[in-house]
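Supplementary material to the annual report.
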Amino acid sequence: MLPAMRRQLLTGSALLGIALAGCSSPASREAMVPSDLVVSQQHRHSLRVQTSGGAETSGLDSSNIADADLKAAIEDAVVRSRLFQSIVQGNDGDYELHVQVVSLRRPLIGGTLNVELETGWSLVRRADRAVLLRKSIHSNGTASMAEAFTFVTRLRLAVETAARDSIRQGLLAIAELNL
Amino acid sequence: MNKTIKLLALLGLVATLTTGCAVNRATGSVDPSTNLAALKTMYVKKIPDDDNTHALIADKLRSKGITVTTGVEPAPGGVDAVVTYIDKWMWDITMYMLELTITFRDPKTDFPMATGNSFHTSLTRLSPKEMVDEVIDNIYKGAK
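Predicted assembly:
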């Protein structure tokens, strides 16, 4: 093979590799919202949501869950399911929900990817600071080669599935409370 | 041409199965319903095949004035928190700790009262002691 042709092929191969690998993207807030959540009761109160323990995703990092995206997804799920009458920002609200990302176990390599997520949920009544719920929630997310060809996309899908399940479990637990 | 096809296939495989990384990340947070200052006795639950990480965590907590015991058995009664951890190791010339997550849990309910995480890839790797120090310091910085 001619040297020039070989160089072109190598460059093309490298570019293809980079294009296929792509950059990691964070879990999407829309994809983390459970779409068909039906709660056992709707609380006639307002809710403030706080999140922590998440992380931003840089281009070469694995998919993470950002605090702001998790907060928005939980708020959206609360609004859609009408679990609380309203969502408030700042320091107002009848109740405070705090959700902490405890651990997000992601594979570094693989075909079918399995992600394990643990979150901690606490619900506090603002009036007397009574703690009404403290719960550790474990969830899983899986994505196969049939769902996405590139690793980074599969990983994001698995993370989103785990986050969606976590939000579902957390809100269903709150719906069981008598507030 | 055969070599070229093999090279393309290899690159495609690598792109499909792996992700690159040159990342540093450190977080720490405490649930608002938790008073971290009230946790005076802790039990570090050792992972059975762990060599030393549990001891580094215990030493770091002792340096903060906390009474600490460790073991693989369930936590004894009377402790204020059970400390669990997940350490992920990688090889790059030598083994190094890629990621460490430490969690303080309610002994009765397993609720995660506080958690911290550090993630450093090979070029900016930290020693296990430095990883433990960073995570626990970040947890205490996260206390309101």
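Residues 2-17 of chain B form the longest helix (16 residues).
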